[in-house]
Specification:
Length: 621
């Protein structure tokens, strides 16, 4: 994990001191990696690249930006390429020379072989080893990179398939600025700093904001997952190199042979963990006691001893939200060094501005801070790489809300419906109680002018959040809503403390295979994530394998909100909050008093309002 940034000036002559600007940009994102700094300027300051590096593989200094043999190509990258070894071997056979042991140097030589747009099939490689559209399709990893081709005067920027690594940009007729974080762009005073009212509306009404390329800052965009952009003096091309909708056709495994399907899933999962073990630094892991994080640690233990491995967990004194009863048996089984964190509402409020500054945009709830505080703890214990268990809920239908929709989808198969209803009655009961909990009608809290300006934007979001089939629900969860939001929050929390996260479930081969599986491998006999449970039967104890619900980073959000009610009321009654054009402050205060009196159960909207107000104060005052 590193921080990258740069500029491209469409005018050959410029009166901007780009060297000074680059140095200031590096300072803004130095928290992402303080092991080394590298810069490159070319073409009479028409192009500038910079990286502040977190060293994990080949920790020598002075390597960046990476370059090819004749110094015509330069590369900066945030992340890692996990499958670099077999690609490097092929490139070596073709005569390419490498001067580092980094994973990303292969990108320069792949580009040399094919350019940005290779012919079909690519020459020299014989069979179709690479995708038709771009060499980037060959890369398996978490990455955002910028590659400068000095001969052709083109800049290529790209982002990994699922968007684990961020890349933001701002562009006008004179220049392009890009970076790993939004705030790095504001080093250039000509970049406007304005709230994006449309995204604020989407967020307040629906709770989502990663569904488009737009950000909370007007005019600042993010490169979408699986997307690249090529910039030259004459034109800009932007395109997708990966689309989840097209992957199902790539699997010819006979899906009726359950043992082979389970074996294939197990093999892909284990391989995904294995290739993420590369590096020269100590690793740690997040451990919630749920299926996902426990499965990751189980495979880690299978591949090499986890004795003494630091496992970081968020814990509660509240028994209903505490997971130590699941974590402690695992720690004994695998010899883990358990590191427990106990965040409080007071700590959240005391550090809320630093937290939102790290996130750069408002977040949906206090659970994101929970994760933030665990990352801080890992940093204080010297960890640079953390394994994380996110990603299987979206592909394997792990969320409880998927189960009632599954029943609806099989409603005409009466025997199967009856069997699943009996087996999963507790999941149905919990889902029903979730739906019956009174939720606030969020639009009523908005000011009339603000609501009228953007009313209707939410319809497409609701249509995609509540589609007709589970496959559609999974697709949108992976590509637009649930997973992008979780990955963004995870990356921000980790990068704030110079930590690289490794997420085995977010491996493109595993994601593609899991997404392509029929329903029977995802929900069966009252169990969600059926194939994962089958794959882990010999590795996980029953207390985890047969767990019906999970907490994860689940904060007591309602209780915290009541504990913080004096501070929250002061915020809602402040001159800044009451003068905003976004909401009806009087109604917000009235309904918050109802919440404190127990008349309203759900705290969701209040947290969104709190974090939006804190964000506005952090970045616009």
């Amino acid at each position: 994990m590193s921080g990258i940034c740069g500029f491209w000036s469409f005018k050959k002559a410029s009166n901007i001191n780009w060297n000074l600007s680059i140095q200031e940009m590096i300072k803004v994102i130095s928290h992402r990696g303080q092991d080394d700094v590298g810069t490159y300027f070319g073409s009479v300051e028409q192009i500038g690249l910079a990286i502040t590096r977190l060293s994990i593989l080949d920790c020598r200094k002075g390597l960046y930006p990476l370059h090819n043999e004749d110094n015509s190509l330069y590369l900066i990258l945030d992340g890692e390429i996990y499958n670099f070894k077999p690609i490097k071997e092929r490139l070596l056979k073709l005569g390419h020379k490498f001067y580092t042991e980094t994973s990303e140097e292969i990108i320069l030589h792949l580009y040399e072989e094919q350019g940005a747009f290779p012919p079909n099939p690519p020459p020299k490689w014989g069979k179709r080893d690479f995708a038709d559209s771009t060499f980037i399709s060959e890369l398996n990893g978490n990455f955002a990179f910028a590659l400068w081709d000095s001969k052709n005067k083109t800049l290529l920027i790209a982002r990994d398939r699922l968007g684990i690594k961020p890349l933001y940009y701002w562009m006008d007729k004179d220049k392009l600025l890009f970076g790993s974080e939004i705030k790095v762009l504001f080093v250039d005073s000509s970049v406007p700093r304005e709230p994006n009212d449309a995204i604020i509306y989407d967020f307040l009404v629906t709770g989502v904001h990663e569904h488009t390329e737009d950000t909370f800052f007007k005019g600042i965009k993010k490169l979408s997952p699986g997307e690249y952009m090529i910039i030259s003096q004459h034109e800009t091309k932007q395109n997708k190199y990966w689309n989840l909708e097209n992957v199902a056709e790539g699997f010819s495994l006979p899906l009726e042979n359950e043992s082979k399907v389970i074996s294939k899933f197990s093999s892909l999962f284990e391989s995904s963990v294995k290739i993420r073990l590369m590096g020269e630094v100590e690793i740690g892991t997040l451990l919630s006691g749920g299926m996902d994080s426990s499965s990751v640690v189980a495979i880690l233990n299978k591949l090499h001893s986890t004795n003494g491995l630091k496992a970081f967990s968020s814990c509660r004194e509240d028994i209903a939200l505490d997971e130590r009863k699941y974590i402690e048996p695992l720690a004994r089984l695998w010899g883990l060094n358990s590191c427990y964190n106990f965040p409080t509402s007071g700590e959240l409020w005391a550090g809320v501005r630093d937290f939102i500054y790290a996130q750069e945009e408002p977040v949906r709830g206090a659970s994101t801070y929970d994760h933030f505080s665990v990352m801080k703890m890992a940093h204080e214990q010297g960890i640079k790489v953390l394994f994380d268990g996110q990603g299987s809920d979206e592909t394997l239908y792990g969320y409880i809300a998927y189960f009632p929709q599954f029943l609806w989808q099989i409603k005409y198969n009466i025997p199967k419906l009856f069997k699943e209803l009996i087996a999963g009655y507790d999941l149905v009961n919990f889902a029903i109680r979730e739906r019956l909990v009174g939720k606030l009608e969020t639009q009523k809290f908005l000011s009339p002018d603000f609501a009228n300006e953007f009313r209707g934007r939410e319809h497409q979001i609701w249509d995609e959040l509540f589609p007709c089939t589970l496959a559609q629900k999974s697709y949108y969860a992976i590509t637009k809503y649930s997973l992008p939001f979780l990955l963004k929050e995870t990356e921000r929390n980790a990068s704030a403390f110079g930590i690289e996260t490794r997420i085995p479930f977010i491996d493109n081969e595993l994601i593609e295979f899991s997404y392509s599986l029929p329903l029977q491998y995802k929900i069966r006999d009252g169990w969600t994530k059926w194939i994962l449970r089958q794959a882990m039967r010999s590795l996980l104890p029953d207390i985890v394998l047969k767990r019906r619900r999970k907490v994860g980073f689940g904060t007591p959000e309602a209780r915290w909100l009541k504990e913080l009610s004096p501070q929250v009321k002061e915020l809602f009654e402040s001159r800044e909050f009451t003068s905003r054009a976004f909401w009806d402050a009087g109604l917000v205060i009235k309904r918050f008093n109802d919440f404190c009196a127990g008349k309203i159960v759900q705290p969701d909207l209040f947290w969104r309002l709190i974090f939006t107000e804190i964000w506005l104060r952090t970045f616009f005052t």
